[in-house]
């Protein structure tokens, strides 16, 4: 459609400026030749010469962009920095975040169980932090990314499938590695590690059934994929207080 035909179409519609904008929008989105640059001229030039009225969709887009920028600027500086790091270095950021949460959870656990004259066991805290950094942080990143690919939907049925997979696969594996890793760093041999797993693993998994499904439902249903490890680690703060207490009990009889 040339400029003459377009002009006739515009001015044949007598429903005022509202009608002109509607006609222009129909022309833009019906697959005809683009009207956003006749003979290389820009929208600004065409608007100045009065050839057509800029459609409302451009104004709406501009307003949305302005609102998004405004809402982003209202976020705390630390949160903006963290989200940028999460986008640029997701693997390392999630690993360090999980390590910090595990360290804080262990210190809290020690405060709860510490004798009045006692002191913090910083070596124990280092063990917990290293587990979050080396194993849990990276594994969470890979696990949540994998689930989002094989189960991309976020409806209730898909959410329950993800919860089930977490309870059957991820939970038992991560807890087994956690107890084994912690015991090995405390100098326990293979027989003692097996005895610890027989004593502690099953009760841990049973107690997890009363806690993790609720956390997982909120995580999978409402939290974006790139923030799911952070949400999971935040829920793990409370859980790890219990877990570090269990992991640092006396050796089991082999």
Describe the protein.
The chain has 11 helices and no strands. It starts with a helix and ends in a 7-residue tail after the last helix. Residues 13-17, 31-43 and 56-61 have low confidence and may be disordered. It is 77% helix and 0% strand. With 254 residues, the protein is mostly helical. The longest helix has 30 residues, at 156-185. The chain has one domain. The chain has helices at residues 3-12, 16-29, 43-49, 56-73, 77-88, 90-113, 122-150, 156-185, 190-209, 212-222, 228-247. Helix 6 packs across helix 7, helix 7 crosses helix 11 and helix 8 (156-185) packs across helix 10. It comes from Arabidopsis thaliana. Belongs to the peroxisomal membrane protein PXMP2/4 family. One of its GO terms (cellular component) is cytoplasm.
